[in-house]
Write a structure and sequence with these properties.
246 residues; mainly beta; twelve-stranded antiparallel barrel; two-stranded antiparallel ribbon; 18 strands
Amino acid sequence: MKKILLLILLFLPIFIFSQEDKKVNLNTGVDFVSSYNWRAIDFGNSPAIQPYIGLSAYGFDFTIWGSYSIMANEVVNENKVPFTEVDLVLRYSYSLDFGTLYSEMVDFYYPFLGEKFSNYKGVEDGVSKGAHWLNLAIGYQGPESFPLSLKLDFGILNDVDDNIYFEAGYTFDVDKTPLNLFFGLAKGKEKSDLYGIEDSKVALINCGLGTSKEIKITDNFSLPISTQLITNPYASKVFLVFKVSL
């Protein structure tokens, strides 16, 4: 019941106010990445294809996003299989003079593990039993004049370690090219298997920089590309990720 009340607290109160953008938009696309890296964690150890489809209206955005590794590097029941992920993302945004506030819920599902999609069990006796992991987040995105981003999220279903994550970022231009700097802190309960943090410490596990540009192909078409240098100071790991978007 507390989790349901928390969901209502995060998503519904702002909705009672008028929302200027009531237009319904449908969009889709796909990214090709040199590796799937999330918060300085490599998933699949392989290049990946990441399609998405999204619907937005009345300040809400609902997105279905997936990642499909090209190579089979995950071991399940003694067999090597490609890493696969399908996420359901629901976000509500509210624009203000000083930026945009948003709340977000993400449902993480990993088909390669072989669990049925209908399995929404949680943690039982300290062990994850379900096929889904749910996170709640609140965040802020600053205006163009002050492009600061803040995000705080935490697990609400099937999270054995009760992980909490905070990230801040800031974007500025270098010779008319955007450069984004970011850092992320995480904390788990006793020991976080997800982030690899021991003894309930608060640790810097995700920081780096990224930039992007568009390569002009024709007068009517440009190809967006981006690169991120990602580090995990706590685990002493470094990643360089390249992405092409269509």
